[in-house]
């Protein structure tokens, strides 16, 4: 092999998941580029991960039958193929390890890499005599009686021909024989071809599928580019061309996927035309089909699984449909043939799908994530839900109200769910009834005329206490479990009680009751149950003063720890009251003033729910982090931070960085959102101090984040199992959305969202035990979902974290990251952005496991704005070693500044682990990262479509807190912006234009003494070198007068509202004259540029071009301290390799002063050695080159790793791959 | 995003509409021709994968200029899809992998052969890069195969390629038939695009080579039977005037001279005749997708 002296070692790959197959209900095989991974879905544990190919990726996994070795050990043959290569492996699973996870090992049987043509499908074939049973030739791989091994494999090719090979002697004598050694490539000649046939239709296929597992009965279905599916029998006696038996005609676009039903009576096709078609082929002449539209982009695959069709698409979703072959024609409703749309993948395309016998659907995304879904959850959203839904009818009135007369009109006034098996009702005749929902039996809890004709019911979260508010302003408090005698309490004034809130108090027997009266006043009561005496007491604590606008309260939360009441109102205001302020003052008749009055929390819509969470010691400086969440009828949820509470974070904290929040996908709330997120930290501080002054306390509630989830309403926020769940309504459907993991867990038709028309109760984040009751017309419906059977199937729906869902355009490692805890290695963190318009940050953890597949920890996932590709990003350091600035740029001239803070839990202890070589090393600390948008850069171009192509950021000695951001634009503009930490805003410092072309690259070099050289390169293939020292000096001179700074601060704080209206002020802008030098280095676009100060050898600019060439330009420049100018005496191309790569070079970095790394569209990584020669030239030698598994590589960056100063190089495009480049040990 | 945003983003798109070309790709062929003078003296041309017809338009314009007394220029445009008619261009709806298509093309030239074969075809890109490259390679090889039937020795072949990981294998295969193979990138093709054009000159089929449509040319393995690499890198030439327009650059829209007057957006010269997603589009127009699309 040629790579004995390999220096760049691939150490991690994240790439689209293109193939999935279950071994059994718990072990999932996945193909991720050249890696095959076995994962235990119950625990998300990786059992094994092997590298299979040199330069191909796995497109499909085809399993054979299971061979039982012992009671606890089994083995299974399977094939993986991709492009023209195929590998046969055996998976050996050992479950003899007791309660521990099973072990899984792979044996490599054969590896054939040079098949004639692109493989579209492969099939195991058996001798017919070896296959007992009713349908001997179908799916022996899944049938237990089949013990014989397959004898042949059939391979279907993209040119519509099939070859059948005889399998040679198994190289292993024993399934348990270990062989970790990868077999080197076998020649095709190690397999014997026994049969070959071409379809009579000569054409190119995107897809094909075999049916049946004996040569005699083998069929092939070809999905053609001319929109037809062709079915033909492979084994054909007369001649080399096999006739087409059936043509399925109807699609309007290329076929991308084709599958047979298990019984071979139906074929399922998917197409460019966005449709799924199911063909009933039982009749040879009359082929009928059904068509299913719903995916919003091309459909890649669909399979028939019992009563369902399961499809995956370019729209990144997985959909479940009703199998039309089983549907009762009378019930068929065109509009509802799609039963579920699972959207768990980001960006573009779900590529792989597999379904287990237990009904767990695994999907693999273009984003590199694997998601698990449950078919049984579909029951909830379909007419099948009927069987779990029942009408609740009151018992005959005389059974509980013997004195009822005909005048007593009886119906349910209000209802609450108190437990999974119990619900409580208030009736029109003044009864409170409890229903045992299992036995469907009723009992009277209370009866009084005061609840006649009106009652407003609420239960405590524990379900023990039910409180009814009456027309006459009284509260009826009853124990559902008979813990105390029913209690009637007055609430002052005899005003009708519109809403009641029963809030948890300090302990399980203590509650706060908040009542909202019809005259828009709010009362607070204390309820204490004395369990010893079976007595409950309810006392009025005081009233709360609402602001003048007097709008109804829809949400309330009590925090016993801080003695605070939080209210959310219909006019979008959040109010906070400090009940401790009542203590010294026993006059409860004066309403208590709020300490926080935060308006427009949800635009102008109702705040529908609110809750507060304290994370002890998780805040800055080890203080408690106190967060508040609210939902609103604007369809969004808002997160706030409480500052100034005892033990919590305080206002003085400089960083308000937030952990792992997502800006959401929403695209229609731009204005509202910018209002909040567009504010600079300065304004936030102003907002805070305003609250402070008004309240006379130091308690502040800051809005830090808001995300729109639905066009409908959000009605409830709850945190369960550490996951943020949101309940909302859209189109008369109730849905529960897991915001932490971004998917809809549950949805069902439930009518409108009006308050008091529905109740929802669940036990955990997976909603395993869930109850929903709602009014449907005059009926009260009760739905129960019990996912007990198989809830142990898997713990996490996200089996594998995702990466960007589309091409990454730039990634940058955090420079000089410092360990956050003594003894730990410096963390390796990078930020990336691209076509999916998301800004993401990840921590790279080497040696996290022995398997290199799982070493990226997602830290943050933001979508700064819709439809704006992130093209470039650069870090800058601040005076705080754990706080950074990040600048991002991209489409529609958008540029933003972000503050990024790093933290770890205080309790964290560094652990020692073994690296690949078995050495004990400290483990990389898993970090938390907070990212907060500080500012948006104003627009300076005439044309809104102008793109920011690249950034370079530097600071100047003697100017702390000032970051200079050089941006180059697609309209040939070159601008230097000052980002001043003091005012958190961008000021235009230098505005110039050059190249008269789209500028692609910018770089800079700070010289000792203060000079700054700037390098720009464009699609004209030229590099321009600029001395910008003078222009910076002139700008700073004017900027540094206090007057201007103040003006800036004022202007930035007053123009936050419409971001479109914000244009750069030009009053102190400097221009640039001509570049100090300009050299023509490439024939067309310069895609990679890296500038290095070589000390005595001067400066080199290494560049890679669209013309496949690598160029080295040497520059001589001298800093004149007196004149404060850089004199560029020469700049010339000293090396040019026109054949450096087979395609356009996309990125260039230098990992040290002697080594260049390049990558190109040809998917190669090449390391070059650079030696500056004394005559002013340069010698460049290729050291090594190897294939990378990142299609469309667009960006590369490098960082130093470990004590031995190895270089870590990452290349990102579609996915990301990491290489460990070790020093030469010759 | 307004209707004019594509005009703003893409100068060649705008210019194509202004100058009456059916697609911006017309400029690509013109710029390749400027560099290589491929159309000099050419009177017989074949345009494969011709729809919507912009290359046929360019060929038509140039070939009419080249036309000599008594000699008529001939352009045969072939596509799987129907194409709106173009004056002076013979249109053929057919599959370029079929012998019958080759025979039909030849029949139009009265026993003579074509001077040039061009192919601007690109398959539907799925996003699975290895498969997309494979399909593109098959399209190119099918075009090469049909070229071996219809091109006169010494003639040229120009085709769109994706410069992906296996492009060097294709170069090797093209070198079998053409001694001079150059990879060319016109300035009207975006820097950010993976596309380029392969310019193959001086058609010289191997001795005793018999064109055969029944046997498709298949792409090469990375190494031959002797383990020698099958990869070749061919020269790269950027073409088009460096001082001309840059397809990546954002240009200001031409000033209408009146601030109150909106920039006028021209309609495309020729709307597509057919597309695979027409039914889906029709459903979308009727509001079918609205509910589900707006949900999240």
TrEMBL record, chain A:
Coiled coil: none annotated. Residues 657-672 have a biased composition (Acidic residues). InterPro entries: Haem_d1_sf, tRNA_Anticodon_Mtase-Reg, WD40/YVTN_repeat-like_dom_sf, WD40_repeat_CS, WD40_repeat_dom_sf, WD40_rpt. SMART domains: WD40 (SM00320). It is found in: Cytoplasm. Residues 673-690 have a biased composition (Basic and acidic residues). PROSITE patterns: WD_REPEATS_1 (PS00678), WD_REPEATS_2 (PS50082), WD_REPEATS_REGION (PS50294). Keywords: Cytoplasm, Repeat, tRNA processing, WD repeat. Its main location: cytoplasm. Pfam families: WD40. GO terms for cellular component: cytoplasm. WD repeats lie at residues 248-289. One of its GO terms (biological process) is tRNA methylation. The keyword Cytoplasm applies. Residues 650-690 are annotated as: Disordered. SUPFAM superfamilies: C-terminal (heme d1) domain of cytochrome cd1-nitrite reductase, WD40 repeat-like. PANTHER family: WD REPEAT PROTEIN, WD REPEAT-CONTAINING PROTEIN 6. Belongs to the WD repeat WDR6 family. This is WD repeat-containing protein 6. It comes from Linnemannia gamsii.
From TrEMBL, chain B:
Belongs to the class I-like SAM-binding methyltransferase superfamily. RNA methyltransferase RlmE family. TRM7 subfamily. Pfam families: FtsJ. Keywords: Cytoplasm, Methyltransferase, S-adenosyl-L-methionine, Transferase, tRNA processing. HAMAP family: RNA_methyltr_E (MF_01547), RNA_methyltr_E_TRM7 (MF_03162). One of its GO terms (cellular component) is nucleus. Its EC number is 2.1.1.205. It comes from Linnemannia gamsii. The active site is at residue 160. It is found in: Cytoplasm; Nucleus. One of its GO terms (molecular function) is tRNA (guanosine(34)-2'-O)-methyltransferase activity. Methylates the 2'-O-ribose of nucleotides at positions 32 and 34 of the tRNA anticodon loop of substrate tRNAs. This is Putative tRNA (cytidine(32)/guanosine(34)-2'-O)-methyltransferase. S-adenosyl-L-methionine binds at residues 53, 55, 79, 95, 120.
């Amino acid at each position: 092999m040629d790579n004995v002296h390999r220096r760049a070692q691939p150490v991690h790959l994240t790439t689209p998941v293109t193939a999935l197959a279950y071994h059994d209900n718990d072990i999932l095989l996945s193909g991720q580029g050249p890696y095959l991974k076995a994962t235990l879905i119950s625990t998300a544990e990786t059992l094994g991960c092997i590298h299979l190919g040199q330069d191909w990726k796995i497109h499909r996994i085809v399993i054979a039958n299971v061979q039982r070795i012992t009671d606890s050990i089994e083995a299974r043959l399977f094939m993986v193929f991709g492009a023209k290569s195929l590998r046969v492996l055996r998976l050996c699973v050992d479950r003899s390890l007791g309660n521990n996870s099973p072990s899984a090992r792979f044996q490599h049987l054969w590896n054939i890499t040079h098949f004639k043509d692109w493989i579209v499908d492969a099939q195991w074939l058996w001798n017919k005599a070896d296959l007992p049973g009713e349908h001997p030739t179908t799916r022996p791989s899944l049938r237990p009686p089949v013990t014989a091994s397959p004898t042949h494999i059939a391979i279907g090719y993209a040119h519509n021909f099939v070859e059948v090979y005889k399998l040679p002697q198994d190289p292993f004598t024993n399934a348990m024989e270990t062989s970790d050694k990868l077999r080197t490539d076998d020649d095709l000649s190690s397999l014997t071809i026994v049969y070959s046939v071409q379809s009579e239709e000569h054409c190119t296929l995107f897809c094909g599928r075999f049916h049946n597992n004996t040569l005699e009965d083998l069929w092939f279905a070809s999905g053609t580019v001319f929109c037809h599916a062709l079915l033909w029998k492979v084994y054909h006696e007369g001649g080399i061309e096999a006739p087409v038996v059936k043509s399925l005609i109807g699609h309007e676009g290329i076929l991308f996927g084709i599958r047979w039903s298990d019984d071979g009576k139906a074929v399922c096709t998917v197409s460019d035309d966005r449709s799924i078609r199911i063909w009933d082929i039982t009749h040879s002449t009359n082929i009928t089909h059904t068509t299913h539209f719903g995916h919003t982009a091309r459909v890649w695959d669909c399979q028939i699984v019992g009563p369902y069709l399961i499809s995956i698409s370019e729209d990144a979703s997985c959909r479940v449909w009703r199998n039309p072959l089983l549907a009762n024609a009378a019930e068929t409703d065109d509009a509802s043939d799609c039963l579920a749309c699972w959207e768990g993948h980001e960006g573009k395309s779900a590529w792989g799908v597999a379904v287990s016998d237990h009904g767990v659907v695994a999907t693999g995304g273009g984003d590199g994530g694997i998601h698990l879904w449950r078919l049984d959850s579909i029951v909830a959203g379909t007419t099948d839900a009927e069987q779990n839904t029942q009408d609740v009818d009151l018992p005959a009135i005389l059974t509980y109200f013997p004195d009822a007369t005909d005048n007593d009109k009886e119906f349910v006034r209000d209802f609450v769910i108190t437990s999974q098996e119990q619900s409580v009702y208030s009736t029109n005749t003044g009864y409170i009834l409890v229903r045992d929902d299992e036995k469907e039996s009723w009992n009277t809890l209370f009866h009084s005329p005061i609840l006649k004709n009106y009652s407003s019911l609420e239960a405590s979260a524990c379900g023990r206490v039910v409180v009814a508010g009456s027309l006459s302003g009284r509260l009826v408090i009853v124990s559902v479990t008979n813990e105390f005698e029913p209690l009637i309490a007055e609430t002052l004034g005899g005003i009708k009680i519109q809403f009641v809130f029963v809030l948890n108090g300090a302990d399980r027997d203590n509650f706060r009751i908040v009542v909202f009266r019809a005259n828009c006043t709010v009362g607070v009561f204390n309820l204490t149950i004395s369990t010893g005496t079976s007595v409950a007491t309810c006392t009025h604590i005081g009233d709360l003063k609402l602001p003048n606008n007097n709008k109804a309260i829809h949400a309330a939360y009590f925090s016993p720890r801080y003695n605070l009441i939080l209210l959310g109102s219909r006019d979008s205001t959040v109010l906070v009251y400090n009940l401790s302020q009542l203590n010294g003052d026993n006059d409860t008749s004066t309403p208590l003033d709020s300490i926080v009055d935060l308006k427009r929390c949800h635009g102008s819509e109702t705040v529908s729910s609110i809750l507060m969470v304290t994370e002890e010691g998780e805040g800055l400086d080890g203080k408690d982090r106190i967060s508040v969440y609210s939902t609103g009828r604007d369809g969004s949820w808002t997160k706030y931070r409480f500052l100034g509470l005892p033990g919590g974070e305080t206002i003085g904290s400089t960083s308000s960085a937030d952990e792992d929040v997502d800006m959401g996908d929403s695209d229609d709330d731009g204005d509202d959102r910018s209002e909040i997120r567009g504010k600079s930290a300065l304004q936030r501080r102003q907002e805070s101090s305003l609250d402070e002054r008004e309240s006379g306390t130091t308690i502040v509630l800051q809005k830090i984040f808001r995300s729109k989830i639905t066009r409908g309403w959000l009605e409830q926020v709850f945190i369960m199992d550490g996951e943020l769940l949101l309940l909302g309504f859209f189109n008369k459907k109730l849905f529960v959305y897991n915001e932490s993991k971004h998917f809809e867990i549950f949805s069902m038709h439930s009518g409108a969202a009006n308050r008091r028309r529905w109740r929802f109760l669940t036990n955990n984040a997976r909603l395993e035990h869930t109850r929903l009751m709602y009014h449907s017309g005059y009926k009260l419906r009760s739905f129960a979902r019990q996912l007990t059977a198989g809830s142990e199937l898997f713990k996490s729906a996200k089996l594998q974290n995702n990466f960007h869902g589309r091409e990454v355009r730039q990634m940058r490692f955090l420079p000089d990251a410092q360990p956050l805890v003594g003894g730990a290695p410096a963390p390796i963190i990078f930020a990336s952005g691209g076509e999916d318009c998301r800004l993401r940050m990840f921590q790279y953890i080497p040696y996290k496991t022995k398997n290199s597949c799982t070493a990226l920890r997602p830290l943050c996932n933001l979508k700064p704005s819709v439809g704006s590709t992130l093209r470039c990003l650069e870090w800058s350091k601040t005076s705080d070693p754990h706080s950074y600035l990040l600048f991002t740029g991209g489409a529609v001239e958008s540029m933003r500044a972000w503050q990024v803070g790093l933290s770890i839990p205080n309790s964290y202890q560094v652990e020692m682990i073994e690296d690949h070589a078995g050495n004990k090393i400290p483990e990389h600390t898993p970090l938390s990262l907070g990212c907060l948008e500080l500012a948006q850069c104003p627009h300076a171009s005439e044309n809104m479509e102008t793109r920011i192509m690249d950034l370079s950021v530097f600071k100047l000695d003697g100017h702390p807190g000032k970051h200079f951001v050089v941006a180059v634009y697609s309209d040939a503009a070159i601008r230097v912006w000052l980002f001043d930490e003091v005012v958190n805003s961008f000021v235009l410092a230098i505005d110039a234009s050059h190249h008269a072309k789209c500028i692609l690259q910018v770089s800079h070099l700070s010289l000792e003494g203060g000079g700054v050289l700037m390098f720009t390169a464009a699609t004209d293939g030229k590099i321009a070198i600029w001395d910008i020292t003078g222009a910076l000096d002139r700008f700073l001179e004017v900027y540094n007068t206090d007057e201007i700074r103040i003006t800036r601060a004022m202007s930035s704080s007053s123009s936050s509202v419409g971001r479109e209206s914000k244009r750069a002020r030009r009053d102190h802008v400097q221009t640039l004259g001509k570049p100090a030098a300009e050299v023509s280095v490439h024939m067309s676009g310069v895609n990679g540029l890296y500038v290095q100060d070589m000390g005595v050898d001067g400066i080199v600019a290494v560049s890679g071009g669209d013309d496949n060439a690598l160029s080295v330009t040497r520059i001589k420049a001298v800093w004149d301290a007196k004149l404060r100018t850089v004199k560029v005496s020469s700049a010339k191309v000293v090396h040019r390799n026109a054949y450096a790569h087979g395609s356009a070079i996309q990125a260039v970095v230098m990992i040290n002063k002697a080594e260049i790394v390049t990558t190109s569209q040809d998917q190669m990584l090449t390391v070059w050695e650079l030696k500056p020669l004394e005559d002013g030239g340069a010698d460049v030698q290729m050291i090594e080159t190897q294939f990378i598994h990142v299609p469309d590589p667009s960006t590369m960056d490098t960082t130093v790793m470990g004590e031995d100063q190895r270089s870590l190089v990452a290349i990102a495009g579609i996915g990301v791959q990491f290489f460990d480049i070790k020093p030469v040990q010759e | 995003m307004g209707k004019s945003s594509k005009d703003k983003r893409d100068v060649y798109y705008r210019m194509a509409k202004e100058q009456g070309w059916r697609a911006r790709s017309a400029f690509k062929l013109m710029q390749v021709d400027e560099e290589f003078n491929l159309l000099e003296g050419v009177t017989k041309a074949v345009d494969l994968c011709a729809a919507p017809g912009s290359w046929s338009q360019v060929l038509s314009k140039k070939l009419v200029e080249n036309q000599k007394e008594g000699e008529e220029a001939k352009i045969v445009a072939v596509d799987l899809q129907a194409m709106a008619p173009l004056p002076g261009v013979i249109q053929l709806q057919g599959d370029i992998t079929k012998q019958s298509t080759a025979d039909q093309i030849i029949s139009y030239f009265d026993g003579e052969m074509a001077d040039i074969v061009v192919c601007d075809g690109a398959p539907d890109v799925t996003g699975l890069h290895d498969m997309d490259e494979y399909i593109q390679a098959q399209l190119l090889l099918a075009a090469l195969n049909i070229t071996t039937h219809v091109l006169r020795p010494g003639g040229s072949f120009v085709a769109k390629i994706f410069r992906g990981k296996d492009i060097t294998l294709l170069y090797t295969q093209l070198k079998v038939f053409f001694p001079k193979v150059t990879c060319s990138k016109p300035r009207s093709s975006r820097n950010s695009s993976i596309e380029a054009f392969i310019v193959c000159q001086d058609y010289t089929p191997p001795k005793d080579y018999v064109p055969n449509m029944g046997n498709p040319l298949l792409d090469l393995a990375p190494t031959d039977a002797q383990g020698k690499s099958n990869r070749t890198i061919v020269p790269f030439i950027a073409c088009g005037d460096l001082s001309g327009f840059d397809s990546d650059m954002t240009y200001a829209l031409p000033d209408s001279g009146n601030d109150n007057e909106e920039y006028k957006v021209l309609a495309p010269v020729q709307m597509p005749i057919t597309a695979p997603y027409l039914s889906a589009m029709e459903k979308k127009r009727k509001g079918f997708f609205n509910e589900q699309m707006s949900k999240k």
